[in-house]
Write a structure and sequence with these properties.
The chain is mainly alpha-helical. It has 10 helices and no strands. The radius of gyration is 21 Å and the shape is elongated.
Length: 246
């Protein structure tokens, strides 16, 4: 999120608001609110399930030697992780009518961050899928190179995930700082989101530097991404802030 983005949104927030008939339609507001909530949950569950399946394979000792036995688990897990390409980008697109003209720069920042994030998810999942053909080279006389390459591919996936999460967190910070200002959701919840994503960025940077604390520091952000869909399903985005045009 750049200084220019913040300045543009701050100026836009000071302008008088007008509301179109479409934007004031409570049915449309609740539909988009629940769609966003559903996409949050779908992405969370798909990636979480895929991550668990993949981890069950690559965390085993000498996993590469037995990769053929667990090929289906690994491939299904990687494909589930790739579903975030659909859920995350779709979610970012749906936010455009929600934030309206006054938050257009925020929506663009969020969309760009999601595109960077899912690109890193894609290259990480691809590195995991490459473990399947690599497994056929393990078991011969000279297989050290294959084992080393397998470990490198797993490490590459971990680094790609960390970079994806950093991009995702910066985009989310842009979105929920705007949401905090305009009251898109309860300000206490939006403020918690901002704090949670800041902590998440710190954890992912630490992970890249070799300090394995990211799992602990992602908990606040994860709790927000569970609580937000519940709020959106029940209450939806604020009618006063939804889709306001500058």
């Amino acid at each position: 999120m750049t200084t220019a983005t913040l300045t543009a949104d701050l100026r836009a927030t000071d302008k008088p608001l007008r509301t179109s008939a479409a934007d004031s339609d409570p049915g449309k507001r609740m539909f988009n609110s629940r769609l966003i909530g559903g996409l949050f949950l779908a992405g969370f569950l798909a990636y979480g399930t895929g991550f668990a399946l993949v981890t069950s394979v690559i965390s085993a000792p000498d996993f590469l030697a037995n990769i053929a036995l667990h090929k289906t688990t690994l491939v299904v897990g990687a494909l589930l992780m790739l579903l975030t390409i659909v859920t995350d980008v779709w979610r970012a697109v749906v936010f455009f009518p929600i934030v309206g003209e006054r938050g257009r720069s925020t929506a663009l920042t969020y969309l760009a961050a999601q595109i960077i994030s899912v690109t890193m998810f894609f290259v990480g999942a691809l590195s995991l899928l490459l473990l399947v053909p690599l497994g056929q080279y393990v078991g011969g006389a000279d297989t050290g190179w294959a084992t080393a390459l397998g470990s490198l591919l797993v490490k590459f996936d971990g680094n790609a995930y960390a970079l994806a999460q950093i991009a995702l967190a910066f985009g989310s910070l842009s979105l929920w700082i705007f949401g905090l200002r305009v009251g898109l959701i309860p300000r206490a919840l939006a403020g918690y989101a901002v704090l949670g994503y800041i902590i998440h960025v710190v954890g992912m940077i630490a992970e890249l530097l070799g300090y394995p604390i990211s799992n602990m520091l992602m908990i606040p952000g994860a709790l927000f991404e569970i609580a937000l869909p519940i709020w959106l399903f029940v209450k939806g985005f604020s009618a006063q802030a939804y889709g306001k045009a500058a």
